Amino acid sequence: AVTLLLLLPQVRGAKDPEVYCGVCRALVAEIDWAIKKVDPKKTIQVGSFRISPDGSQKPNEISYARSETHLLELFETICSNMDDYALYVDPETKKRTYMRFAPRDSEKLGSVDFKNFKFDPENSKSLKFVCEGIVEEYEDEIISLFAHEADHAADKLCSEKSEMCDPPSQTHHPDL
């Protein structure tokens, strides 16, 4: 019983904003990547299958990539991709972010300097755990953002909806 009490503060501890923001942005990037891999011609029938007054039946077809069905399928496995992320410390600014260090399928990462990554197996587990929590808590918002091809999905989910990240800096553009 004493051991459990000692572990409770760690389990219920405050959310680390750096981790939650980084995982949220990584989650959006992973979903976006998975959507782009789907053949754009692939469709799925949705909605009602009512018979019109003339006796015909016209089901509604939408793109499979952004369908709720596909997004829910992605949610089952997407967080395992957090194993490919680690804490990255920018050598110049010392800014800490979570960045992908492993290339996807046919992707090239370019010149990644691995000495600026902080690899920690425990941290990798916590990234997956945080990701699963975000998916569970914000499932409806994620589906809504991706089903409707929202611009700036990471900012909308991670800053506006969940407030896990600070709002993107408002750069003043006098010429616009």
From TrEMBL:
InterPro entries: CNPY (IPR042415), DUF3456 (IPR021852), SaposinB_dom (IPR008139). The keyword Disulfide bond applies. Keywords: Disulfide bond. It holds the Pfam family DUF3456. One of its GO terms (cellular component) is endoplasmic reticulum. It comes from the Eukaryota. Residues 17-169 form the Saposin B-type domain. Belongs to the canopy family. This is Cnpy1.
